[in-house]
């Protein structure tokens, strides 16, 4: 049975993403619903970074797969929220759309490809060895992460300042060199439902941090 309590690593990554968004100067909320929808996207990015570290920690495949479904669900929810808020935003998915939107679409499609290929044994068996498939899977994962980072940074909506880019670089380093982090903060498998709750809390926290004005 999966653990119902998360490891310390996943909340740490989510908290770092929340700190990154709030580290910019002159931040202004765009409204609870809008910022929550974007928060779901940031949760997906945090989840993808966690998946890199989870894999490096040798977590059982079933946990890794379940968390990848959560990341995909977050991306779908991120997009659907915006289309529900304003259906005219569908124009941003047509030719001539801003570059950052295409980065987002590419990241989404790559994550679907990663999940589909990992779940299909005939595809996995078409590789010379399991190690060859894992290398291919990891490289494709990097392309997905780079596309999502491009989506977040090129838009310039939330990540603009040097401190924010420094924190983003720290998260990327954590994904590139997970052993540096895992040495001090170990990862372990836990319920994907708990992982989803953490992600939603990040989205809510992001919306609250940008829209609640303290006296």
From TrEMBL:
Signal sequence region: none
Protein's name according to its UniProt entry: Ferric oxidoreductase domain-containing protein
Top-level taxonomic group: Bacteria
Keyword Plastid in annotation: no
Spans through the membrane: 36-54, 66-85, 97-119, 140-159, 165-185, 192-212
Keywords: Membrane, Transmembrane, Transmembrane helix
